[in-house]
């Protein structure tokens, strides 16, 4: 192992799979709120959401998208499409809900965007259903 080399380390594929799975499960965990009607209603009443047409529908679509993209990313199925969904949702969260503030209220949508970009270009990798 040469730490000064530009080549990936020996277990690169395994590490990328672990990070992909953790990222997907984290996103899916946030999306599980789609099953909590009260939480969705609270989101629909947020100032940034209630100005949209049919805010309740948008709240359900956002949380449903988080759940679906997270599950797909975790199992490595339709990974690039899942990443596009995740990136789109997190861009909305970052710039519309978070008003462009990269770090707020212990939420880190910017990190999900960065990870989504990585897996969009890298793909699901060797340890995935896509493979």
Structure description:
This protein is mainly α. The chain has one domain. Helices cover 66% and strands 0% of the residues. It contains six helices and no strands. The chain has helices spanning 12-31, 37-44, 47-50, 55-75, 79-97, 109-122. Helix 2 (37-44) packs across helix 4. The chain starts with 11 loop residues before the first helix and ends in a 9-residue tail after the last helix.
Please outline what is shown here.
The protein is 66% helix and 0% strand. It has 131 residues and is mainly alpha-helical.
Percentage of residues in DSSP E strands? under 5%
Rg over alpha carbons: 16 Å
Largest sheet, in brief, is: none
Q: State mean pLDDT (0 to 100 scale).
A: 91
Count of discrete domains: 1
The amount of helix comes to 55-70%
Distance, first to last CA: 27 Å
Number of helices: 6
Morphology? elongated
Class of secondary structure makeup: mainly alpha
Low-confidence stretches: none
What is the number of beta strands? Answer: 0
Question: What is the fold's blueprint, element by element?
Answer:
Layout: H1 12-31, H2 37-44, H3 47-50, H4 55-75, H5 79-97, H6 109-122
Helix pairs in contact: 1-4, 2-4, 4-5, 5-6
State the main characteristics.
single chain, 131 residues, mainly alpha, 6 helices
